[in-house]
Amino acid sequence: MPVSGTGNFPRILSGSRCSMSALVWSVVGFLLMLQLYSLVSHRNAVSGDIQLHMSRRPLLQELEQAEEENIQIPPARGKRPRRAAKRRHKQNTPLVDEFLDENSQLRHVFFPDMKTAVGPRNTGNDSYHYHPGRIWLDSEGKPIQAHGGGMLFDERSSTYYWYGEYKDGPTYHNKKGTARVDIIGVGCYSSKDLWTWKNEGIVLAAKETNETHDLHKSNVLERPKVVYNEKTGKYVMWMHIDDVNYTKAAVGIAISDYPTGPFEYLRSQRPHGCESRDMSIFKDDDGVAYIIYSSEHNSELHVGPLTEDYLDVKPDMRRILVGQHREAPALFKYRDTYYMITSGCTGWAPNEALAHAADSIMGPWETMGNPCIGGNKMFRLATFLAQSTFVIPLPGIPGSYIFMADRWNPAELRDSRYVWLPLVIGGLADRPFEFSFGFPLWPRVSIYWHRKWRLPLSSRESK
Prior knowledge:
By secondary structure, the chain is of the alpha+beta class. The chain has seven helices and 23 strands.
């Protein structure tokens, strides 16, 4: 005999299955509606950015008129010099091969001589104009030494401080074709207008005799970045620290009471226990600072917050752009969206920059494509023969920035040049995104090539 009441059991199971199915479809519908809302919100934001971009058009019109380049590659004259051949990368274009050849007939195009140098002592039409690739002189008439640098705007003094690698020493080459300069220290320059730079000296110096010290001249110090901590009143410097063979792969940390130093070196470490090579520091609007660095043999980037005193990393870390082999990260923010310019990993050979965007600095990050406009195709594929290092917001013009990059000269590193160009956010991105069903969620990032340019008048007046 059947147990009393079991006759309704199949109908109960059937009802349960129907309820479960309805619940699942309700959740799916909710998620789809949430995704649709997110897409509509983003598209409205993009539309708003385009409208804002159009309203800024009179100010940006000159900056957005990118110039073209017609660089003619000379006929081959036989084999390249051995040192240039060793610097060659399989992804190189003919333009980059010519660039790496220190005996090239185009050397004067890539590295103009001292006769064309620009600086505050020069008079005439070149005043307050940037000339990417030319020698840039400080207020004393000497070439600026701040390579792989970063910028700090000190609100207390309304002054910009430019920190970078001081490389005014001989370049040494090994059998593998790599080049280096002994550590001299971190150079610092100050400016009120982002064009006239006063040499504030070496704010973190090498150690000449202590061979066990991270800053011994035989080691590597690269890409110094400085942020100010309002809670402690300290200026905090982070930098890439390595040995001559690049096996240490660490960060170094130093502090100072003043932006002009001297900085006290505290220690080196591997953030989150991971290799760290090319790196940068980004300070958000809420005062939280983040480190981002190339790791796992430069195959991916890691990002995570610093402690409140900016002297260490917190445990939280995210791996981003995994397997994409990107380095030289330069972060900036616009209207609650985080942006980043990165470089490929091809040694001293310049390569194609990529722009990335994210709603959260911790990711996920989307790749938006090559931001370079102007020059010619080979010039754009080589980021105008330069590599990213930092991005500076332009005062008074929202969504407009200065893209800071280095044109490395591995034959003579002290003669590496600076490529500063206007960067503008606006318009539709040029490739579909992975996480948004192909819809562009953010406006395009554009870096415009100019042989000669200057800041818009409103930006100069707002400083």
